[in-house]
Amino acid sequence: MVQDHPPLDVLWFIPSSGDGSYLGSDDLARPADPGYFREIAVAADRLGYSGVLIPVGAACEESFVLAADLAARTEKLNFLVAIRPGTATPAYYARLASTLDRVSNGRLLLNIVVGGSAEELAGDGIFLPHDERYDHASEFFQVFNELIETGQSTLDGRYIKAIDARLGLPPVQRPRPPIYFGGSSDAAIAFAGGFVDKYLTWGEPPDQVAEKIAHARKVAAARGREASFGIRLHLIVRETDDEAWEAADRLISKLSDETIAAAQERLTKNSDSVGQARMLALHNGRRDQLEVSPNLWAGIGLVRSGAGTALVGSPKTVGARLREYQALGIDTLIASGYPHLEEAYRVSELLFPELGLPGSRGRLRSSFGERQVFGGGGHGGNVKLP
After folding, report:
1. Across the chain, which distance is largest between two alpha carbons, in Å?
2. Segment 245-263 mean pLDDT
3. Using one digit for the tens of pLDDT, what is the confidence trace for 349-369?
4. Cβ-Cβ contacts under 8 Å for 276 (sequence gap 6 or more)
5. The Luciferase-like domain covers which part of the protein (predicted)?
6. Gap between the Cα atoms of 93 and 88, Å rounded
């Protein structure tokens, strides 16, 4: 392993709308189950992930409530909790965020999700066109940030009106929990330049990511700010490249052409997200064009909204691809894999050593120093070697 950069900060994902072993199939599917989410969070905490992303949406468990439940069952894990401006007032979200940061002892991260589906946003009572949603979000976070940093805010804006708003109890983190955000449109990047601590991109080919980072850096610098950068990717890591590609093929082996067509129609018709359009353009719904860059596989995006690409390969191969992103300025990886519990173990055990990450926290001694190998777990224990 050659480590040219500080190790990535690696977070995992809580699949709060459900999980499974095959895309586009009910075979070995796992429904949304709070007990299962707790298993994933506890595993991620023990395996050395710095945090977990909890998504937002009509099909997902409510992000703040789920994070509060998981925070009570973990020790060091941070929670990147999705917040959608417009579904509640900035004052209410400030109270939610401050309380969650306090009860978790400073383990809250905030992920702004303005939303890309007009249909879903209408269900939440949000009827603004694409670019105007970011004007609304700017006013929202002006009030939110003032409240959570100083305890008070007033704004008589076009979208947000808050007169002498107050927050009684401050968060643990100062001046506030960090704010993450991802968006590919010009309006989104302009918004990011004024409010965001960590700008996120979905897993596009490196040249596209480089272009996006350069744009975001320029916009932030014009506002006198700096942002750091993260990437959202799925991972399919196995001991060899061949095994990893076999696992990728298996993941979509029960996915029918009819299901792909239905998913692509839904993703195209119901979204005005520039980022989603960029994801779809990587494969155009075709099974024969899925490796869109070396080891970057777009098969997940045949049916999944949002992040639709995975890095596929051995630890050495995936580590090399991740270092290419690091060279562009990426310092954070928000990762996932199917199913999420088992893949959390695979990534920690196989990939973390290649990335220079320590892996499982609080590892106990397995012997008094003798050389041993795994003996199958029988009553005789491990096999001691001379």
Report:
1. 77
2. 96
3. 999 999 999 988 777 777 888
4. 116, 267, 305, 306
5. 13-331
6. 7
Domains, the chain, in order of start with CATH, read 9-385 (3.20.20.30)
pLDDT at 253 over 70: yes
Is the CB of residue 247 less than 8 Å from the CB of residue 310? no
What is the mean pLDDT of the segment spanning 81-98? Answer: 95
Burial class from Cβ neighbours inside 10 Å (0-12, 13-18, 19+) for residue 177 reads: buried
CA triplet 184, 41, 249: central angle to 5 degrees?
60
Structure tokens at 122: 């209408």
| Relative orientation angle of helices 257-269 and 274-281, to the nearest 10 degrees | 150
Q: At which residue do the structure tokens 């045949």 appear?
A: 302
Query: Which amino acid is it at 264?
Result: Q
**According to the model, what pLDDT value does residue 2 have?**
47
Burial class of residue 358 (count of CB atoms within 10 Å of its CB; 0-12, 13-18, 19+): exposed
Distance between CA atoms of residues 199 and 370, nearest Å? 48
**What one-character-per-residue DSSP string does 311-340 give?**
EEE-HHHHHHHHHHHHHHTEEEEEEE-SSH
User: What would the two tokens of residue 378 be?
Assistant: 């029988």
Q: Which two tokens stand for residue 340?
A: 């999420």
Residue 375's identity, in one-letter code, is G
How far is CA 254 from each of CA 24, 250, 297, 337, 341, rounded to the nearest angstrom? 7, 8, 17, 17, 21
Going by C-beta distance under 8 Å and a sequence separation of 6 or more, which residues neighbour residue 35? none
CA 195 to chain centroid:
19
| Measured CA distances, 277 to 271, 273, 274, 369 (Å) | 8, 6, 5, 56
The CA-to-CA distance between both ends of the chain, in Å, stands at 29
Given a contact cutoff of 8 angstroms between Cβ atoms, the answer to whether 127 and 87 are in contact is no
CA separation for the pair 190, 47 (Å, rounded): 37
Distances (CA, A) of 261 to 16, 99, 373: 25, 43, 50
Contact present, 292 and 282 (Cβ < 8 Å): yes
